[in-house]
Proteolipid protein 2 (Nothobranchius korthausae), 154 residues
Amino acid sequence: MADTSGTSPDANLLETMKSYVKTQKGFILAAEILLGFIIMICYLASHFGGYSGVAICEMVFAIIFFVVFMNELDKRFHVIHWVWSDMFRASVGCLLYLITSLVCVIRVTGDGAHIAAGVFGFFAGIIYAYDSYTIYLQLRSSAQQTAAPSNDRV
C-alpha cells in the first residue's frame, strides 16, 4: 500500500533534527559530536592514537543523548533520570578532554595531528564544561520549583 500522506518518514526525521539543532541543547550536543569526530580523526592520523578512545566514547555518548532528547524519549522512559545522566556524561567528558588535551599539548612530540587533537580537545572540554553548567542551572531551577515553601499556616 502506498504512502498517501505526502511526507516520508525520512523527511520528518530530518525536519525534527533540524529543529532540534536550533535549540540550545541541540546545538551544544551537535557541537560535541562534531568536535569529537574532528578529534577522533586527528588522533587516528597521529602516530600516537592512544587517546582516540576518549573521543570515540564521548562522541557515541553525545550521539545517544542527541537521539534521546531529539525524539523526546526522555519524557517516555522514566526509568533513567536523563538530566542527571547527562550531567554525569558532560562532567566526565569535560574532565577527560581537559586531561588528555593537557597531556597531548605538554608532551610535544612534533606530531602536528597530535597537537591539533590536543587543541581541539581544549575546545571540546570548554563546550562540555558549558554543557555541565547549563544542566546544573536546569537542575537547580527544577529543585527550587519542587521545594517551594508553602505560605499556609495552621
